[in-house]
Amino acid sequence: MTVMGTARPAGRPRSERAEKAIVDATLDLIGEGTSVSELSIEAVAARAGVGKTTIYRRWANKEELVGDALATLKAPLPVVEGRTVREDLVAYLDVMRQDTLTLRTRCIMNIAMSEPDRHPNLYERFHKTAIEPRRAAMRAVLERGVATGELRPDLDIELAIGMLSGTMLWYTKGAAHNNTPLADDLAARIVDEALRGFLSR
Amino acid sequence: MTVMGTARPAGRPRSERAEKAIVDATLDLIGEGTSVSELSIEAVAARAGVGKTTIYRRWANKEELVGDALATLKAPLPVVEGRTVREDLVAYLDVMRQDTLTLRTRCIMNIAMSEPDRHPNLYERFHKTAIEPRRAAMRAVLERGVATGELRPDLDIELAIGMLSGTMLWYTKGAAHNNTPLADDLAARIVDEALRGFLSR
Amino acid sequence: MTVMGTARPAGRPRSERAEKAIVDATLDLIGEGTSVSELSIEAVAARAGVGKTTIYRRWANKEELVGDALATLKAPLPVVEGRTVREDLVAYLDVMRQDTLTLRTRCIMNIAMSEPDRHPNLYERFHKTAIEPRRAAMRAVLERGVATGELRPDLDIELAIGMLSGTMLWYTKGAAHNNTPLADDLAARIVDEALRGFLSR
Amino acid sequence: MTVMGTARPAGRPRSERAEKAIVDATLDLIGEGTSVSELSIEAVAARAGVGKTTIYRRWANKEELVGDALATLKAPLPVVEGRTVREDLVAYLDVMRQDTLTLRTRCIMNIAMSEPDRHPNLYERFHKTAIEPRRAAMRAVLERGVATGELRPDLDIELAIGMLSGTMLWYTKGAAHNNTPLADDLAARIVDEALRGFLSR
DNA sequence: TCCTAAGCGAGACGGTACGTCAAGTCTTAAA
DNA sequence: TTTAAGACTTGACGTACCGTCTCGCTTAGGA
């Protein structure tokens, strides 16, 4: 008699070694600058020392493979609970800045954000697992700021998130293009400017 | 013997019809949502009713073809000289918003901004002809604002540009993803929030 | 201690059901017109409801499987002991003709004789179990004919066998190709012509 | 203005070098004992130093390629017009015997005759270009023999053809199997036996 | 009643070849 | 010399089987 529930399916179980090798090969290739379109299953199979079938058996297409591969890298959301709203916001934005420092993360972001129309599922997944949590964390900080009176009570919180994240993204794009690192105090300067406003008073 | 000066080269002159057909076909395909990577010279040639050689003779690679094709669309920079800094900024940002309304522009932006690492020259050209002028125009407005005392004298103007453009870009990305149009008053709300600052006073 | 002799090997005995299912599936597929080269072990296993391993455990390769499968069909050699040499020869040749009437036998012959170079063992077996006995039977008839004086004393018996069998084979080939049945009296006509000779006297 | 008739099609003409290389590679491989089923387009392409497309552009499938390849080898039908029917028949049969002496011809025959059901078009072509002409030549000889009174007036000519060719084929099969050469005087012995008949008078 | 050994179906494994497609280059006759 | 057409080599695509290998389970005889 067998214990009910998730009965192990018949036949030889899929090799975890193979799976890992495939994912690693995919990430390697992406890390070397291969775009999703350029990434060939054949190359992944060769690099992983695996038959093509073994890849096709698990993933229906490149997108899903890349999606799963990127998912294994999901960096943990930093938990920053500082004393002031400003400190927290700076911390969150600075994480975004630091992400751009490692080649791998840069490549991944490039991939994930590059062709939302072309690889919608990919973008969707990236959005759910990477963007949305960060947005939520930032929202919490801003709402706390409004609650404590630190921030304007009529502040459009979604808009504020957009301003902070969008600005950092703008710089990230530029930095990726110029291949120059972002200034250490960039996050602080963005937050300060946003908090204070441009007007003279 | 040939007449000196801008001597007309020997042989059959290049067909302008062919050139135009090629560029049109390229734009058509891009407008239909074909990414740069997916865009096949074969398809362009077929659509244009032209031999592949005729394309390769004029452009060394896809990038240059796409670059030239996009260049023919360069929308004129709007000349907005309003009464206040706020009005001008809103006007500029709103042009960006309106750009997202037409499918073709959306596709082009997607293409141009999608893979800076993959197609650096393409991004470079787009940057020079589309982004830099807009940035310059915005910079002029902000400098005028500082000069007139409307804006803080210590305002980091580059950062301010980044905040305004980046925020709009952030929304544009989101809208492209959700396929929802941007609110009519978005530009105004961004500018107002930026001018005022988030703080309570 | 075990009883000496053909000691039953340890472990679970091989399933006769499986063996039969495999052979039947093989014959079915061959009967449906699958050539040896086209015959896939995978298909046999699927048709037999059996794991591939179960096949490979018993047969080293396709040839042996097909050989054993065909061997199970070995039709009994007809025993014809007529009054005259002519009657016996006609009887033997007519058996060959009748063999071509059933699809299965036709397929089998096709297979067995098709690629002696490719599947030498297969041909060898077919030769030993099907051709050689018939040849021997025919040889006996001819030798009896020579002994009784019915046939020329200097008749080259091997050659005579070749003429009779080869002629029938020639017709069989042609019939397989045109998909037309062989005439009922073909065997008799071949034998008569062979016995009499072509010359006018 | 173009000369009418078989107007040369536009574009680069197909390379005769490539065509020849492909056919040669095919014949080489067949000559090395590769069966039709085993023959892989990939191998032909590699051996010929040619892209697979170049093969598929010209031939829809293996059969047609092999057919055309074999067709280039079509040995000329020997013209034998001897003094007697016997001499002519012996000459024709001996050509068949000699064909079995060269490896290449043996392979080709094997291929061509091996799987009529599997490669019907191939067999059809072989039949039309190789078998039918020989049959016709032999028929002419036999009819001449009947006309001159050398042969029985009621001789079944088609049957006679079958007896002569079939017998030689029977020996050919056997020789291919045993890898022993056919006796030099085989053709003569077959013809003599056939002309004379088996009976004692 | 267990233990040991082998067979069982299932199905994953690394491969090879398939036939298709597009890449970018080359070669022709005509313009 | 450029044109359109279309051949060229190259290489990835996704599929089908190959023959081997693991799984957990079954089936038997002997301890």
Textual characterization of the structure:
4 copies of one chain form a homotetramer. Chain A is mainly α and 201 residues long. The first copy, chain A, has 2 domains: 16-71, Arc Repressor Mutant, subunit A, CATH 1.10.10.60; 85-196, Tetracycline Repressor, domain 2 (Orthogonal Bundle), CATH 1.10.357.10. The first copy, chain A, is 65% helix and 0% strand. Chain A contains 9 helices and no strands. The first copy, chain A, has helices at 16-31, 41-48, 52-58, 62-71, 85-99, 103-114, 120-148, 157-178, 186-196. In chain A, helix 7 (120-148) crosses helix 8 (157-178). The first copy, chain A, is elongated, with a radius of gyration of 21 Å. In chain A, 33% of the residues are buried. The mean pLDDT of chain A is 84. At the A-B interface, helix 6, helix 7, helix 8 and helix 9 of A face helix 6, helix 7, helix 8 and helix 9 of B. The structure holds a DNA duplex (31 and 31 nucleotides). Chains A, B, C, D: It holds the Pfam family TetR_N. Chains A, B, C, D: Residues 40-59 bind DNA.
